[in-house]
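SEQUENCE-TO-STRUCTURE ENTRY
===========================

Backbone structure tokens: a row of integers, each naming the local backbone shape at its residue.

Task: work out the structure tokens from the sequence, keeping to the layout shown below.
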Amino acid sequence: MNLVLMLSAFGAIPMVQDDEPRKKDWSRYFPTGEGISWTYTSDSGREYKRSVRKAEKIGGEQSWIISGFGPGFFYERATVTVGTGGVWLHRFPNVNGVDWLRFPLKIDASWTVQVGMKDWSMRFDMKVEAEEKLKIGETTYSCIRVRTSWQDTDGDSGVLHVWYAEDVGPVRFQNGQTRKNGRFTEETWTLKSFKNGK
């Protein structure tokens, strides 16, 4: 299965206090609501836009249908469930969702997810790597960087970094992918504009 993922890089902010992770509204790192939209540009000058389309209830959690999770990403058209425990991406019927973010987003927290169907599967190894500051244009974002290493049974693999900013969501994607034929590609997508829909 041919995959192209997304993501990119940032700076450094103070570590959160030990009791702060329990009090913080971690869903602010992945805002959802009707009318929210993000526009990204790649390092090659291409543009990609995704937006929140509608709300649904899935398993008692508020869920949102978005027009795309990321440029060329495997879960490009996904149902995103944002709850008190994290963010899940759902793409295929009868396949468990990927717990993309687990709250609280504590530095060095890590988890592994495996999804599959029939004769194909994909493994994700996630790690919350750092809190950083990233300047994009005139705006400086305080971010949490999450690394995802992935591999599928077709022989493709890669490493994806995503920088999440509070009240904005993903502001940069950096993806390096190695195909089964050994070809390596790398691409970075950076936030161009954000509309909060309110």
Summary: The helical segments are 20-23. Residues 1-21 have pLDDT under 50 and may be disordered. The CA atoms of residues 63 and 81 lie 4 Å apart. The two ends are 38 Å apart (CA to CA).
